[in-house]
Amino acid sequence: MLAKRIIPCLDVHAGRVVKGINFVNLRDAGDPVEVAARYESEGADELVFLDITASHEEREIILDVVRRTSEVIFMPLTVGGGIRTLDDIRTLLKAGCDKVSINSAAVKTPEFIREAALRFGSQCIVVNIDPRRVPIDNEPAEMKDKWPEHLQVRPHASRDGQSEVYWDVHINGGRLPTGLDAVAWAKEVEQLGAGEIVLTSMDADGTKDGYDIEITRAVSDAVTIPVVASGGCGSPDHMVEALTDGNASAALAASIFHYGEYTIDETKRQLAAAGVPVRLETVLS
Question: Per residue in 149-166, is it b (16+ CB within 10 Å) or e — as a string?
């Protein structure tokens, strides 16, 4: 059985690592280079670096910080934020990252995923999907009929079973709803050539109440490429749920690592004790 990956995430704003709740109310968590070096020493499997306001501010990613971060780690590095062109991807790969994560540009121009996968290989192309639960009756009117028939919204039962909701994909750092259903979009990005999906529940993000297992399972079961569960982790037990009940290939977390509640190595040990296959070699020496 393949080992499950534990991935800390650096949400970077104005050159600093930050963490918020539901994508807002940002709190400082340190220098990205220093934080990345700490996670390298603790045995993280990969690192995700997201410039969270690049798309919204319509600017290029902070390349110097990416380069300095890549210089202090050996684990795979995924970088996202403000990626719009093949040249952007090429520049980031030259700066030291192993994979790039696209979100807003992928939704606005889906063919960009195919072009990127053909040019750089599917293993380099990650698509971030940021959904929020929205009642069917609240579907954005301006988004109706925007998507092809096979991407139209599908109703999903909400947690309490009292209403029908769909998982509305958001872009521009969670600021813009699209009316695009997350499960349908996940299937589409796989067909277009993406090699991995990072699925961040906007409802759970930063709450530390646990991942949204329902959407994680729905997306993981709908595609064959790896799905990284993201949003809501408050403990290693939440990771166990995402990696087993949610069928995710990896679990991403920020708050519990940034503020010293858990280290990567103790988290992996708790997962291993719960029967989750994880890579322990780097933390046993």
Answer: eebbbeebeeeeeeeebb
Task: Give pLDDT tens digits for 108-120.
Answer: 999 999 999 999 9
DSSP letters, 122-163, are: GGGEEEEEEEEEEEGGG--GGGTT-S-GGGS---EE-TTSSS
Q: Determine the 3-state secondary structure of 106 from DSSP.
A: helix
Distance (Å, whole) CA 205 – CA 231: 4
Enclosing domain of residue 112: 5-284
For β-strands 125-135 and 156-157, DSSP reports them as unpaired
Cα 73 to Cα 175: distance, rounded to the nearest angstrom = 31
DSSP reduced 3-state for 57 = coil
What tens digit of pLDDT does each residue of 6-52 get? 999 988 876 667 755 544 445 555 788 888 999 999 999 999 998 85
Rounded distance, CA 179 to CA 167, Å? 9
CA angle 253, 254, 257 (to 5 degrees): 100
Q: Show which residues are catalytic.
A: 11, 130
Output the domain CATH number for residue 71: 3.20.20.70
Q: Is the model's pLDDT at 284 over the cut of 50?
A: no
Q: How far is CA 55 from CA 59, 60, 100, 111, 115, in A?
A: 7, 8, 14, 18, 20
| Cα 285 to Cα 42: distance, rounded to the nearest angstrom | 11
